[in-house]
Task: structure prediction
Amino acid sequence: MSVGCKRQHEDAKTTATEQPAVRVQTAVVETKRVPQIEIVVGTVRPRVTGTVSARITASIQQVAVKVGDKVSAGAVLAKLDDRDLRADFEKARTDFERYSTLLKKEAATRAEFDAFQTKLRVAEANLSYATLTAPFDAIIAAKQCEPGDMAAPGKPLVTLEQPGAFRLEAAVPERFAGAAKLGTKVRVTVDSFKDECEGTVGEVVPAADPATRSVLVKIDINCGHPLSGLFGRAHLVVGERENLFAPKTAVRERGQLTFVWAASDGRARMRLVKTGAALGDQIELLSGVQAGERVIVSAEGNVADGQRITE
Result:
C-alpha cells in the first residue's frame, strides 16, 4: 500500500507538471507593523445609577412601579404611611397661623413667631419625605420593597438606572494599565451584539487590586441598547508588532489544511501556513512563508502542486 500511495502521488505530480501553464495573479508577502492588541474582559454597567431609600421610618402604603418601568424625574415611586406626619403638619400650620395673627396684634414676640414658622417648615419637609420620587429619568432596575414593609433610612427600596448611558468596567492587568489612559479610544465588543463599537476611557481607578494585580478601567460605550450585566471585551492597543501579511484571497483551505500557492521558478508550490489577525483585506501569516515571496491570489484555472504558471 505504501508503494502504491507513493506512486499515486508521483503520478499526480507528474500530471500537474505536464499540464499547460495556468495564468495567475500574484502578490508579494510583505512585512508590516501593526498594533499589538490585548483583549480584556469586563461587565456592562450603567454610567448613572441610584438607590432610593426613605429618610424616615414608616410603613410602606403603596409601591407605584415595577421592574422594567421607565420613569421621569419626579415620578412617584412609593408612598409611606403619613398619618402621624400629616397630623404634625396640621398642628404646626394651625400654631403658625395663630401666632401670625398674634404678631399682627403685637400679642406675641417676633422670636415666638419665628419658632413656630420653623416648626411648620420642618413638619412640611417631614411630610414630603412620605412620598418617594425618582431623582432622574430612569429605568427601574430592581425593587426591594412591597406594600406593608417597613421603610427606614439607608434601607434600599428601589434601584434606578439611567437608560442609554452605559460603560464597560474591565480589570486591566497592571502591565497594560498605561494603555488605558483617560480619553483613549478603545474598540469594544459586547457578545449579545454582532457589531463592534467605539468606546472611550472615561475613568481609571487610581489604585491596583493587590489580589489580581489589575486596575479597574471604566470605558464609556455606545453599543446599541445593551443591558447592564452583559459580558464585553475591550481591545486595548498596548504597542506595535511586526509580521508578514498577504491578501486574504491568497489563503485557501482544504479539509483541515490551510495553505497558499507560492509562485516559485514559474511553478505553483503548496505551502502550509498558520494565519493570525486580519487587517482589512490582508491577513497575517505566522508561518510557512518568507518576506518577499510571491503568492497566488487568483488563477484562470485549477492550480496543483508543481503546476506551471504564467503571470
Q: What stands out?
A: The chain is about 20% helix and 45% strand.
